[in-house]
Amino acid sequence: MNVRTTSLTPPAGAIAPVRHPDAPAPGELLGAHYDQCFGCGEAQPHGLHLATRAGEGVSVTARFTVKAAHQGAPGLAHGGVLAAALDETMGALGWLLRVIAVTGRLETDFVRPVPVDTDLYLDAHVVAVRGRKIYSTATGRIGGPDGPVAVRADALFIEVKVDHFIANGRPEEINAALSDPDQVKVARAFEVNP
Ligand SMILES: CCCCCCCCCCCCCCCC(=O)SCCNC(=O)CCNC(=O)[C@H](O)C(C)(C)COP(=O)(O)OP(=O)(O)OC[C@H]1O[C@@H](n2cnc3c(N)ncnc32)[C@H](O)[C@@H]1OP(=O)(O)O
């Protein structure tokens, strides 16, 4: 029987992540991987509009302002929205590894409530890599990079190829993405061998 471990602790044989030589420079704004993405897309009216920058090593920082549309309880951010922000921030680490990866597992700690209008400062880094499996962690702080921790998460991302999206996405969006030269350029920036 094939028993899948759900642990987010890197297994024996996992290695330290390697920053790709062509990764964006520390401080560089990464931009959106897809303009309709709920997490980072500029053209997505309902989205978080996360602004993410490359950090040192295999790390990123990001910022997002909690809006009224992100509420769960009155005046407070919805936990799922906060989890999405952490997920998106860790997803951006693919820019530094130059691999496309999707979330397989995400475990979130909600440490304190986050009011509407809060600027949430996120940071994420890759802890270890084993084959296609990328183990990452992220933290979100209130009001500034040294502010109190509100949320944190560990995640396992799994490396995929562009074909993953072509095979699974709705054809109308996939065809639009494939005929958009900017989108194709982004896919290439993620992949070592497009
Ligand atoms: C034209 C368009 C261009 C687009 C260019 C844009 C590019 C930029 C996109 C970036 C996007 C980021 C956006 C934010 C991050 C999301 O939100 S991503 C969206 C949410 N995630 C998903 O939709 C993923 C859905 N799941 C799947 O598709 C499949 O389960 C997966 C994750 C691809 C894995 O399937 P698979 O490739 O068949 O892999 P599989 O052989 O089952 O497992 C491989 C290994 O991972 C382990 N594993 C797999 N799943 C799990 C799990 N859930 N828990 C624990 N272990 C697991 C397995 O045990 C196995 O381990 P080993 O045996 O090797 O030790």
UniProtKB/TrEMBL annotation:
<dbReference type="GO" id="GO:0016787">
    <property type="term" value="F:hydrolase activity"/>
</dbReference>
<keyword id="KW-0966">Cell projection</keyword>
<keyword id="KW-1003">Cell membrane</keyword>
<dbReference type="InterPro" id="IPR029069">
    <property type="entry name" value="HotDog_dom_sf"/>
</dbReference>
<dbReference type="GO" id="GO:0005737">
    <property type="term" value="C:cytoplasm"/>
</dbReference>
<dbReference type="GO" id="GO:0006631">
    <property type="term" value="P:fatty acid metabolic process"/>
</dbReference>
<dbReference type="InterPro" id="IPR006683">
    <property type="entry name" value="Thioestr_dom"/>
</dbReference>
<dbReference type="InterPro" id="IPR052365">
    <property type="entry name" value="THEM4/THEM5_acyl-CoA_thioest"/>
</dbReference>
<protein>
    <recommendedName>
        <fullName>Acyl-coenzyme A thioesterase THEM4</fullName>
        <ecNumber>3.1.2.2</ecNumber>
    </recommendedName>
</protein>
<keyword id="KW-0378">Hydrolase</keyword>
<keyword id="KW-0443">Lipid metabolism</keyword>
<dbReference type="Pfam" id="PF03061">
    <property type="entry name" value="4HBT"/>
</dbReference>
<dbReference type="GO" id="GO:0016020">
    <property type="term" value="C:membrane"/>
</dbReference>
<comment type="similarity">
    <text>Belongs to the THEM4/THEM5 thioesterase family.</text>
</comment>
<keyword id="KW-0053">Apoptosis</keyword>
<keyword id="KW-0472">Membrane</keyword>
<keyword id="KW-0809">Transit peptide</keyword>
<keyword id="KW-0963">Cytoplasm</keyword>
<feature type="region of interest" description="Disordered">
    <location>
        <begin position="1"/>
        <end position="21"/>
    </location>
</feature>
<feature type="domain" description="Thioesterase">
    <location>
        <begin position="75"/>
        <end position="139"/>
    </location>
</feature>
<keyword id="KW-0276">Fatty acid metabolism</keyword>
